[in-house]
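so the lab meeting is tmrw and i was supposed to have these ready like two days ago... anyway. pasting both below. for each one the top line is the aa sequence and the line under it is the structure tokens. i havent really looked at them closely yet so no promises
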Amino acid sequence: MPDLKTLQAQIMAAIAAAEAAQDEAALEAVRVTLLGKKGLIAARLAGLGTMPPDERKEHGVAANLDKEKATEVVAARHAVLKEAALEARLKAEIADVTLPVRSHGIEAGRIHPVSQVMDELAVIFADMGFAIAEGPDIETDDYNFTKLNFPPDHPARDMHDTFFFNPGADGARKVLRTHTSPVQVRTMLTQKPPIRVICPGRTYRCDSDQTHTPMFHQVEGLVIDRSAHLGHLKWILEESCKAFFEVPDVKMRFRPSYFPFTEPSMEVDIQCSCKGGEMRFGEGKDWLEILGCGMVHPNVLRNCGLDPGIYQGFAWGMGIDRIAMLKYGMPDLRAFFEADIRWLNHYGFRPLDIPSLIGGLSER
């Protein structure tokens, strides 16, 4: 056992170390050295039993004083370090209430206008009793052309600048669908009339300029029933356009046209005003082509297993990107696909602003 002078010197040094401790871990180590069961104070007290009574009393008093001093120093330093740790934590966690509040992710994000318009169309046509039908982007030539009354080598196929895949093992070439009409074919092949569906989705053609892109979006509608006629088609188109453009009235004119899958076929223009570079619908003296439509060709019905002597129907189609441009004033279709966050922040929609015919389709 060290002599008393050495123990006393070690105790004083440890007390000094406790007073200078910079963190609670260092202070705890000094406390164990001083006051632990095998610490310096315990060692000094253990040596009292071998001393004469007079010396035992003197050194016992001194040892207890050292123990009290060590306990007070450790407690005082612990309080100081605890206070310093609390201040450091408060400084680290301080909130500057003068700074602007950071936007939550759900508020900072934006819905792309194409997705918004698809949702708006779904709401409009669901209110009319239409279901949504979908199909694959990669189609067979049969579904994309043949069943839609495009015979092989027919000149009408040149109307579509088609992306063809390499021939398969059977020699057949699949295509990226040039319209969503194959979804109508799939619907007629798998469902029995009456049929009321809209078919939104991506389509592909070899074309690119200010108003055309190689990939774009279309929505087509199909009604098959025993007594569907052009009067029903006209009403559906007028009501859907009024709801989409959010105007009380629209005027349309129907011009004869040609599509292989409809007969008769028509192009539809909508009344508008283009004054001051701003497009307004339901007013003015201008006309803008907006969609194509017609009665489903009897050959298409036969190709899909339906008897044209019993069933008839009509179909229409329009570009989702184009009507989005018209409604929301977007001048260039290519910007839809350039992933420019500034464009999306300007034209995009808040995620929780779900379209509703009651609350308004396009409230931002």
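ok protien two:
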Amino acid sequence: MSGRDPLVWRRAAAIRAKEWAQVWLDPSTFGLVVLMPLILMFLFGSAVTLDVRETRTGLVDLDHSEASVDLAASLASNAYFAIESGPSVAALEPALRAGQLRGIVVIPDGFERGLVAGQPLDVQLLTDGTQVNIATFLTAHLRGAMRDWTQARAREAGVVVQPVVRLLPRYTYNPELESRYMLVPGAIGIVMAMIGSLLTALIMAREYERGTMEGLLSTPIPIPALVLSKLLPYYVLGLASTAICVAVAVFGYGLPFRGSLLALFVIASAFLAAVLGQGLLISAATKNQFVSTQFALLSGFLPSLLLSGFLFEIDSMPTAIQWLTYIVPARYLIPPLQSVFLVGDVWSMFLPNILALLAIGGFFFLRVTRAITRRIA
């Protein structure tokens, strides 16, 4: 049948109506489009964080001098530490082994005498090396706290301390260096990748399992029109899920939205074209709802989480893995999404990513139309 035949469009509209009816009659679709984004956004936005605050830290003061007491008070008032004092390292070491403490600060005996003599003794830090990131952050924060304390005492004594080189950092777009500003937009990409692939992973498999695929294929409508008619309702549902995620990010987690809704719509549409096509190809190839669901989760969630730049910098990956990231749709979504929230519309960055997503979507669409034949095995 030719696409110019007016009956083709009526038949395509009938297929879309049938697909909408299945969506509304299937309660799992509501959970997938509404409940899952809310749950995942809460988990990624609240449970996943790179900000280290109130790190449980032990403190052993072996000097018991005015200077050591003042240093201990300074550390206790620092927001990065939750100080727990102890009489000795041996007394606090069981808590460090059990994970109840992340580190132990030891102020040595003779600390004040060393300061007066101009030969200060080193303050020791014992950290839990199994938690590499926390140990690194704890070391950096303690070093900064010690520097601030030393400079404050020098000012009180009337001594001018001038470092040779001063670093004055200025953080654009995220002045407070809040990790949620990076994680929440990335989480939207992960949620869209999961939901987009899952939405369409069951379409064809369900038709094959119920035995209704024969009726669809006997309809005098071209295969591309059939595929588009079945995809359109899930594209609308994908946009609705994206809108829910964006609303949670802005109103729930206080993220700025400095871009435009047009840019967000274009980026989301291009990404949905890729992940919906991916899920549909899986569905058409497996012809089994359980298998297609498992494949959709594996191909939609894990690559998006690990190979998109969401948690790990792509430039730090081995070269072979970096090349592998080029076939992951989320790689082309997360940077533009972060820009829409934090920077604004940067179309010079958006367009290459949008074109890459459309190319991936076009590849999946062609593969789906070739995978669906009018002959049922």
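from a quick look at the 2nd one: The CA atoms of residues 102 and 195 lie 37 Å apart. Residues 6-48+178-371 form one domain. will dig more after coffe
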